[in-house]
Amino acid sequence: MSTPNTSQPSFPSVAESGLSSAQVQEQVVAGQVNASKDASSRTLGQIVRANVFTLFNGIIFAAMIVVLITGQWKDAVFGIIIIINTGIGVATELKAKRTLDKLSILVASDFFVRRGGQDVRVPHDEIVKGDLLWVRSGDQLPADGTIVQTWGLELDESMLTGESRTIRKTESDLVYSGSTAVSGLALVEVTAVGASSYASKLTAQAKVYKKTHSDLNEGINKILRVMTFVVVPLCVLLIWTQLHTVGGLQEAVASGAWRGAVVSAVAGVVGMIPEGLVLLTSLNFALAAIRLARQNTLVQELESVETLARVDALNLDKTGTITDGGIVYDSIINLGQGPLLPLEQALVDVSHEENPNATGSAILQGLSQIQPSENVPTRIPFSSARKWSAITDNSGNTWYFGAPEVLLASQEGVFPHIEGKVTALADQGYRVLMLARSAGTTCNDQDAVLPERLQPEALITCSEHIREDAQQTLAWFREQGVRCRIISGDNPATVSAIAGQVELTGSSKPRAMDARKLPTDTAELAKALEEIDVLGRVLPEQKKAIVQALHLGGHTVAMTGDGVNDSLALKEADLGIAMGNAAPATKAVAQVVLVDSKFSHLPDVVARGRQVMANMERVSGLFLVKTVYSALISLGVVLSAIPFPYLPRHITYIGALTIGTPAFFLALAPNTRRYKPGFLKRVVAFALPGGIATALVVLTMAWCLPGFMGWNLRNANDLAQLRTVCAIVLFAMGILVLARVAQPLHSWRGILVALFVVAGVIGACIPFVAHFFAIVLPTGRSALATLAGVVYGLAVMGLAVGLLPGCIAKLQHRRD
């Protein structure tokens, strides 16, 4: 963006005197000043509250406090999960808040206004409605207005409209804040300031905080909501049952046995909450973001990593995504019968200015084999105001180079065949220019006017430079079933031609449409979009409406962009992707930023999202098995009024070795499976057989062993032996579930399972670990009972896994 021009100017004389000091003060009192209060929608306190006071944290915190009250702090180590998970959530949202707080479309600077007949310099925030504002080359408009007088003002509105060309303004034209003056000068009456200006409205809408939707987090929260209704009454019943097993409330209070009873009840509650899954989800998102950062891809919201896996509609902005904004020379078309070389020489000479524009630079690069003439007698440099340039060569010929409609304006209808060629080439997406000749005349920079008659000699075609990776990347998305559309503010014919060059729709021709003809009704728009591949002349509001219509059609939408005109659509999309060279406002609202602006990173980004989702679905089943068996064991304990068969620290040890730690490794494994809806259904279907089998085996041991072994469960040693046997059997069942999740086992996954078996055994043999987690290796008859329990568990697990999935599938089919 150009730096605003604030040097002391010399302005033309004008009749307008501008506002008086009294009128300015009236506008200030009325609040019509060019300042707006910028703040993100969430404060630090709101972010902390949103992450601390969650259902998950509430359940775990309450359980931890209950255990700490009993004095058994070793059984409360599960509470560390709250601190880690909350810290990750707060840090992530604070980063997003800082990004939003920095969001600004306008560059604050000083400007010159006409007040009381004098031209005075005022800060950006002191401009008032009704001011006469001087706009000069390099200025970014600080407010909206209407042009009063103009001296060749041309504006670059690409940040707002998406069109890559400059717009020449005339008197009474509307101009909008955020536009940049490329050339010329104008006196503008300010009509909207502060929060009412166009740029401020865009900023305000972009700053609205929007939490990225996460199927994974939503599924986990559903589980937590269900467990809340189960946990509270079950916890009360467990406490009552455990007090009853030690002789009732009075006996428990008198003997202090109530502590053990409460801890036992908490063991059931904690087991039902998939606390590690919540933590692993946050960590996996964070690790995926780190991996993408190494590939110059910045993930600004962790949940957006998951969204990557679900995207099935990708809206692409042309400039900055498919093209890099540069101009490329394509060809020169000889309109006469003579040789081509003199025409190419003339074209190089007329383009070889001291500071050639983008088109001139492209021609010089495209015809680099031709050296410019060392001596050009006279030259008229290119001007965007007149749309042409000219040179006179040593042969006395004057060559004019510019827009065909300008060069032939005085000869309209004289060359109909040439006008037809120009139209046909423009419809193919080319930028068409003309090289014309006038013999026996000399161009004069002091009086730069076109002669009455010109002889067209050649048409020159240029086009936007297409990224080398665009075609290959679009082919990848087609293969993956992701529907890509190009949405641009440029001419539909131009955009359609570029779409055809990159094979947006493969071998078929892209279906294009002018966005001005789109229906305004969202439902009608959704239907229309199914038959459209390319849209041109799209306004910022329409980009947002297009995303909303695709949502109505059930699509998960990603949107790329680089201009401020894309910011609202990026905000509305499920996933906003900004290029690294994008406007700051656009990057601020995007969830993903391609730092080096390489479109080819997108397949890697989507693949990483698919890895996260596929692996998290795999390990979610592992965590949910614990939820199922903990709930069933707790219910069995309540119904049979027996002591709880293991302690909270047992479940912490077992969960770490059979679920939490191995799940971390499994979640990072390569996986390119496409995401399919129905995440929660599949996870539940996997977890039920393993959870039911585990609960049945542990309850059977808890019910039967005391009778077989002659244990009195009111005796602390006998109860400790029972809990040791049940804990070991539970560990064995956990390993079986882990082996099922980790399949196939003939790879590193099998080694992983074996390592955790060994780790569990070695840990039980280390005195400190065994003492901390209350693990006692069984001996004698207890060892035999343990072995029998493991064999029994293996048989039950095999039976459950073989039969239950089929029964569950039949029930789901009938319900559907």
From TrEMBL:
Q: Which SUPFAM superfamilies match?
A: Calcium ATPase, transduction domain A, Calcium ATPase, transmembrane domain M, HAD-like
| Coiled coil location | none
Location in the cell reads: Cell membrane
Domain P-type ATPase A: start-end pairs? 113-206
Q: How does it sit in the membrane?
A: Multi-pass membrane protein
Membrane-traversing stretches: 50-70, 76-94, 223-241, 261-287, 623-644, 650-671, 683-708, 720-739, 751-777, 783-808
Query: Keywords in UniProt for this one?
Result: Membrane, Translocase, Transmembrane, Transmembrane helix
List the NCBIfam families hit by this protein, alphabetically. Answer: ATPase_P-type
Kindly give the PANTHER family that the UniProt entry links to this protein: CALCIUM-TRANSPORTING ATPASE (PTHR42861)
- Protein name according to UniProt: Haloacid dehalogenase
What are the leading ranks of the lineage? Bacteria, Bacillati, Actinomycetota, Actinomycetes, Bifidobacteriales
Q: Gene name, please?
A: ctpE
